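pasting for the record
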Amino acid sequence: MKKKIRWGIMGLGKIANKFASDLQLSNEAELYAVASRNQEKAIAFEEKFHSQKHYDSYEEMAKDEAIDVIYIATPHSFHFENTMLCLKNNKSVLCEKPIGLDSHQVRAMIKEARLRNLFLMEGLWTRFIPATEKLIELLQKKSIGDLQYLQADFGFKADFDPESRVFNKCMGGGSLMDIGIYPIYLSLITLGIPTHLNAIARITKTGVDSYCSMLFGYENGEKAILESSVEADTPTTAHIYGSKGYIKMHSRFHHSKKISLYQDDELKEVFDLKYQGHGYIYEIEEVNRCLRNKMIESPKLPHTLSLDLMAVIDQVKAKIGLTYSSHS
């Protein structure tokens, strides 16, 4: 694949704008096509980011044989059907998180991708930024000794609007699916899969959670204390504690630009880890690398991580009585 990798973007909202902007930072890729159900939106996006084509039909873009990979940035509840549409038209997919609404959907997408030998990855862009890479390196070096517990929160204040993406159950709304996924994902890459968990939440009149508090326990006694909220602006930091010290991921931890390392109650080192653009470029380059190497999953964010993440989310949903109608 000597030519540039040709990307399509499906769903042209806020995140798609950031993604398209960062795509322009890559020498490996080009924005080839964009699709929205709204033709005016598609034309405006095409002009803004200089894509070669626009579509007012997801189906038509999925059939475009010139496209190598499609980034799906539609609302949560459409991720499954949009991903399956692309895979069934033999397109590799990067699907914005959460990749599905439940484990059944995630398993079906992975099965389809593997069957067709196509690349598929969940769009957890924060896995690839410099701060996350540095965190993993520090933990591998046992910079804070044996891990003991993790505390992470993510909260922002959203005005209640039953029709908005955040509060609309039909769009996969709620704090857990929208932002709680980030503390949970951090717990997975640091402590692994919990052996037991508990959760409590406040449920809105639209049937989604506006606040969720989670406590995870692990085989060797480690703990994770996690929170998500659309009721308040919270610190949105993460602290990983070990037997010899702790690591602070500064706000907002999921795309932190600064990590502090404390050992024996003293600040040992501060890492300034700025990222390019909006931070999506690292995820983009990982997908480009995998496609060039004919890989169907990324070793940094393999299918198993998405399966584990959704399995844990499903357990939390069960604890707080949160259900979504599945399109699968």
